[in-house]
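Q: How do we represent a protein-ligand complex in a form that can be generated token by token?
A: Start from the inputs.
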Amino acid sequence: MTNHGLETTLAAVWRFLRLETEEADFEKWLHGNPELKTSLGDDLYAEVISTNFKRRGDIESLRKQLRRWAIGYQRTECLCNLLKDSDSRGLGYMADLFKAKMKRLACRTPWIELWRCRPCAQAWLLGTDTSWDVVLFQRVTDAEVSAVLNDDDWPKLVVDPKHIDHLWPSEGWLRVCEYEDLEDWRRRDGQPELGRLDRANLLSVNHRQDVEKSKVCGCYFCLSIFEPTHIYRWIDEAMGLGRTATCPKCGMAAVLGDASGVTIEESFLREMRGNWYPDKTDGVPPSKSTRHSARLEF
Ligand SMILES: [Zn+2]
Ligand SMILES: [Zn+2]
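Then emit the structure tokens for the protein with zinc ion bound:
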């Protein structure tokens, strides 16, 4: 792995800040990748690389500097970066804070659901555990999202086994609530709440094949319409290839191509914008630096 584009560096730094990476591994990573200089800038890189990992104080100051740097690039108003790949938050206020910018895409049981963050597009498997009063959050990939939505094939919620038992409705619960069985619950109340605009939103990530086949593309943030050949920056890299297009005009990852089966015209883009970016108005640049803002173009 030699590709340390900005997105990759940010992901690794957030992992370190969330205490998901061992300090020794992070040190090795820093020293093994001189190209980090491009992402971090000369000054910060020089400081970072001179950190003495044997000194607690040095590590703490490294964390502080990297946090400041990463937050500077925090391009969304969501809190996804604060969640580990597998994490939990107290049921109620705390979990609701994290869910505030997310949209539910599908339900497996009354307790296990698939959500996607609107601003950053990260998908999460959520498990509500009413015995321990926590909501479990587990990062899932776009491939896992497709498997759920297309084939009802759910990733396993990997948590402490003592939690998982409570996440499945018991026969008693189903009976009390007058469901014959889980299938009955899913038929009657567990239907995904996916509307037309939600489906279109899903088509704006991990869509390189569609975009490249499209005759015309449009951005539902700035409403510009353009040919796919004008796209010059792709994000969500896998194997060195960006999978999600960003708009050549405004830099947002809010691009749809007609080969995805949507009609690219201003009225539709405007409708999408009203749903996903309700605060955006014509001619006004994004108020805060948002995930895919143009400042990342440099
Ligand atoms: Zn997010
Ligand atoms: Zn745009």
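Residues 75 and 289 are 5 Å apart (CA to CA). Confidence is low (pLDDT under 50) at residues 284-298.
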